[in-house]
Specification:
Length: 168
């Protein structure tokens, strides 16, 4: 976990201990430049995401670093972000719907190196072609959205919802 001002670490260690996890198993890492942070993230085997607030930037960073992310779909926007990240990365099989599914898949992946390796390989293969990391496609879509909004404003239209066509 990212190092944070006191008393964060103490609270986390107490919480871990209250749930049967040895406090010394929690590791707090200092902030680093992005390249070193991503290299450090890549050393992890699996990212276990939590609720009610899913991973956002950290989840994207983990996927970029090649680390499979396991999440549970929440019921609010902040609890559904990681599910969207995984879908865009082509790994919807890592989205679980309840605590029992999450725990079962976490235990399976932690005890089955071959299954985890297959996921890492799939993530590596998807990285160059998935929507999550296709910066140029994102640029095309956001430019199309801005054009649509600008043209509507020039025509005197009131703001309205619209969808950007795929493959713009």
């Amino acid at each position: 976990m990212l190092e944070s001002p006191a008393p964060y670490a103490d609270h986390e260690r107490r919480g871990a201990q209250a749930h049967g996890v040895a406090p010394e198993r929690l590791i707090f890492a200092p902030a680093l430049p992005t390249d070193r942070h991503l290299a450090r993230l890549g050393l992890a085997d699996l990212f276990l995401d939590g609720l009610p607030y899913n991973a956002h930037t950290t989840g994207s960073d983990a996927l970029w670093a090649g680390v499979p992310l396991l999440t549970r779909r929440g019921t609010t926007f902040p609890g559904r972000v990681a599910a969207s990240l995984l879908t865009a990365a082509g790994l919807p099989e890592l989205v679980t719907e309840n605590g029992a599914e999450f725990e079962a898949l976490a235990v399976k992946l932690a005890s089955d190196p071959d299954a985890l390796k297959k996921l890492r390989n799939k993530l590596a293969a998807n990285k160059s072609r998935c929507a999550l990391f296709d910066t140029d496609l994102f640029r095309q879509h956001i430019e199309a959205a801005y054009r649509t909004m600008w043209e509507g404003w020039l025509a005197g239209e009131k703001p309205k919802g619209f969808a950007v066509k795929a493959g713009v």
